[in-house]
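To the wet lab folks,

You asked to see what we're planning to order before we commit. Fair enough. Below is the target structure as tokens, and below that is the sequence we designed to fit it. If anything looks off to you, flag it before the synthesis order goes out.
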């Protein structure tokens, strides 16, 4: 017998037993608070985007504050990149450092996407890269189960799978979580 595996609430980090496989937050209250937080982030993000929009798109060398704004990175990161010459820069005097925007874009491609877009992405991010997955056979062997039981559990707990050739893969993290929660 398998009891439902405890899950960590993304808002308060408490471990809780989800009511359904799709339960994300531990309580209604956490769900509401997370929603509020998301709304606040969205507003902040809109403000950020409107500031970014004021920076001319054809400006190839940008200021440090502009770099921080566009790429959502720390000031220290920008200065470190300039110092170790990871990005081309020009220095026209103190407070007049300019950095190569395109070079930063190559280093931080994700940051050009809006923050809210990233937040709103599926809260369950599964890594289905082959090296981070078990095959069904490997799961059966590791946890001393029959293949058909493994399939049943995967369906029951909506664990994502991926087929490559003759093998079906499931993310190690989810499988370990599932079977480490086995209570006889
Ligand atoms: Zn919570």
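Sequence we intend to order:
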């Amino acid at each position: 017998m398998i009891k439902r595996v405890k899950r960590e609430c993304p808002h308060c980090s408490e471990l809780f037993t989800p009511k359904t496989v799709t339960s994300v937050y531990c309580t209604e209250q956490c769900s509401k608070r997370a929603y509020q937080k998301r709304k606040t982030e969205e507003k902040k993000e809109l403000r950020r985007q409107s500031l970014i929009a004021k920076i001319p798109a054809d400006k190839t060398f940008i200021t440090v504050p502009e770099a921080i704004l566009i790429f959502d990175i720390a000031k220290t990161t920008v200065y470190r990149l300039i110092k170790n010459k990871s990005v081309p820069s020009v220095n026209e005097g103190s407070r007049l450092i300019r950095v190569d925007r395109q070079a930063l874009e190559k280093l931080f491609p994700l940051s050009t996407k809006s923050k809210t877009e990233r937040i709103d992405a599926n809260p369950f991010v599964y890594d289905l890269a082959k090296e981070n997955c078990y095959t069904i056979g490997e799961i059966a062997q590791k946890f001393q189960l029959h293949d058909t039981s493994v399939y049943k559990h995967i369906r029951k707990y909506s664990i994502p799978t991926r087929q490559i050739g003759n093998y079906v893969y499931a993310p190690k993290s989810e499988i370990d979580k599932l079977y480490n929660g086995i209570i006889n």
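Structural context that might help your review: Residues 18 and 176 are 17 Å apart (CA to CA). The domain at 130-180 is CATH 1.10.10.10 (Arc Repressor Mutant, subunit A).

Thanks,
Computational group
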